[in-house]
UniProtKB/TrEMBL annotation:
This is Isochorismatase family protein. PANTHER family: HYDROLASE YCAC-RELATED (PTHR43559:SF3). InterPro entries: Hydrolase_YcaC-like, Isochorismatase-like_dom, Isochorismatase-like_sf. Pfam families: Isochorismatase. SUPFAM superfamilies: Isochorismatase-like hydrolases. Residues 12-161 form the Isochorismatase-like domain. It comes from the Bacteria.
């Protein structure tokens, strides 16, 4: 692909396993800001027409996504019951993603070194271009940095919520439209 920037017209946002069982592994001070950034990104993606797919690992055992995530998802969004670590390894999730007809996937969620990394690398293997967001993913301790490093080494673009947002927005007219739709209040830890 010749275009180095990710476009709102070619991207899908994948929200992976933002469930209490995984959030609770993170330091308490990191949990709410992380969820806030992911929720904000979901609202921004929706306002920009970027399709969103959501999933949660073993919903029966681990529960659904946390309530703020569920509330942020566009009405009618299916939350896939993910039974594998890398989403590309589950046919129904991969089919949902492929049905969107877009070649770029932006990843947010948990855990950076396991489900996010395996999803990213599996998607690259399936022919997608992938970005993972360093401030919209999480794992306890050194595992977060290790996951980002593993993905970077595998050809995943590492960006931030702010970075991908402005790649999707691209111009001041669109910026004004999105701000009017989602407001100007930002979650903790996000500066635009």
């Amino acid at each position: 692909m010749n275009e180095p920037l990710f476009s709102r017209d070619t991207s899908v946002l994948a929200v992976i396993d933002v469930q209490s069982v995984f959030l609770d592994k993170l330091p308490e001070a990191e949990r709410t800001p992380l969820v806030g950034r992911i929720c904000w990104l979901v609202r921004a993606a929706d306002a920009l027409g970027v399709p969103i797919i959501a999933m949660a690992e073993d919903i029966a055992a681990n529960g659904p996504p946390v309530p703020p995530i569920t509330a942020a998802l566009p009405e009618g969004t299916l939350v896939h019951d993910k039974r594998v670590f890398g989403l590309a390894g589950q046919p129904d999730i991969l089919a949902d993603l492929t049905s969107r007809g877009r070649g770029d996937v932006v990843l947010a969620g948990l855990e950076t070194d396991v489900c996010v990394a395996q999803s990213a690398l599996g998607l690259i293997g399936a022919g997608f271009r992938v970005a993972a967001l360093s401030d919209a993913t999480g794992s306890p301790g050194a595992c977060h940095a290790a996951g980002l490093e593993r993905m970077r080494g595998g050809g995943v673009h590492i960006s931030t919520v702010k970075g991908i947002y402005y790649e999707w927005v691209r111009d001041l007219e669109t910026l004004a439209r999105v701000k009017a739709q989602i407001g100007t209040t930002l979650p903790a830890g996000l500066t635009l």
